[in-house]
Please model this.
Amino acid sequence: MDTNVSEFMKIVESRNGNEPEFLQAVFEVAESIIPYSEKHTKYKLNKVLERMAEPERVIIFRVPWLNDKGVVQINRGFRVQMNSAIGPYKGGLRFHPSVNLSVLKFLAFEQSLKNSLTGLPMGGGKGGSDFDPKGKSDNEVMKFCQSFMTELYRHVGPDLDIPAGDIGVGAREIGFMFGQYKRITGEFTGVLTGKGNEWGGSLIRPEATGYGVVYFVEAMLKLKGDSLVGKKVVISGSGNVAQYTVEKCIEKGAKVLTMSDSEGYIFDPEGIDSGKLEYIMELKNTLRGRIKEYAVKYGCEYHAGKKPWGVKCDVAFPNATQNELDQNDARILVANGCICVAEGANMPSTPEAIHVFEEARILYAPGKAANAGGVAVSGLEMSQNSLRYSWSRDKIDSKLKLIIEQIHQACALYGREDNEYVNYVKGANIAGFVKIADAMLAQGLV
Ligand code: NDP
Ligand code: 2IT
Model:
């Protein structure tokens, strides 16, 4: 390891020793930024990366609520306000039993760089709770969301901090939280994104992350004179991001072979078509069922407790969660001829897996670049709320496509290592960093 990087990491580790996910995210960025700061010494002298690795503010709070049996439940709520150099804090809320400070700090750190890459004026934040919406009634989810917002409302606002969805937080949860915010403050404002279309939401926001990751892959393949037509695609997850990745892949002429959830994956050698996708959307979003039910309905393979990375493919989309694709999975993908990996999820590939992709020189797009479409359309939702107006589907989709293409160009600019190879990790980290760093330098020590 570069000695400057290890010196830097020693300091970060001494302050955050018990936060493995956060340290992993910071290390991945430090590997790109420390060598860059050695050449651009204003960043080094002013300790910009050290400052970025310390959240501006962390809020942790109790969330008490009553379940349907009248039994008292206690969860922990969080909001990490990471960086506001280029705009108000912006980023999703995650409701999942695995949520803790380390996970949310890694997500908020990544979010700051991702939001910078979009070119929109958004700082970085992330929040959530260890609450598990799975198996809860709508009434229980509403009670939890109301209690959560009863504390969170004092820390957020349309010019201060604008949360959105993430794992376990979709249209239903955003609705309940928006209603409670409005009731407490008496204001109808754009305090959350991912709202319903009838009450201030943006068209294309549900689709944006999935569509965006496919647009990013198209841009990478185009640089190689290739396209998605006829490509075999393997996808993990079956939530919001996975569903709209499938939809766009089908539209682009690719064949989607797998989807998964935390219990296993389905392998459909015929390909998931739009009719089957409609069934998955109903199954996951309305019935809140499990992906194995797809295998029963369509008579295909289901692999319990397994991940889909052993299925031979051209393009892989890890779209479920962090560290879901390890070194061994990466080796199998490469050995099976995979030419492109694009992360719909945040940090799904372990550092060792990333090194396998880099050594094999396949196309590899890190989450902060590839999945920025979701927060980009959240930014467009904020603009529409400020204008008190709403734009058409086509207008937003073309803005989304343009933003993704610009992120791809910025990655190619900073990440080109020779004529043939673009290191998208380095490109995304430096392009995201420079804009925030310059704003921090301009604003002084705050
Ligand atoms: P959803 O809650 O809609 O779906 C999550 C999916 O991932 C489900 O299929 C879920 O399976 C699976 N999953 C969750 N946790 C685990 C786990 N520990 N192990 C295996 N599978 C798991 O979330 P999203 O689709 O919104 O988010 C997916 C990823 O995309 C996350 O990393 C998120 O941070 C990232 N992302 C989301 C954006 C958005 O706009 N929503 C934007 C950018 C990135 P199960 O149902 O069994 O839990
Ligand atoms: O990880 C992410 O970019 C998101 N969950 C979306 C954040 C947002 O504010 O739309």
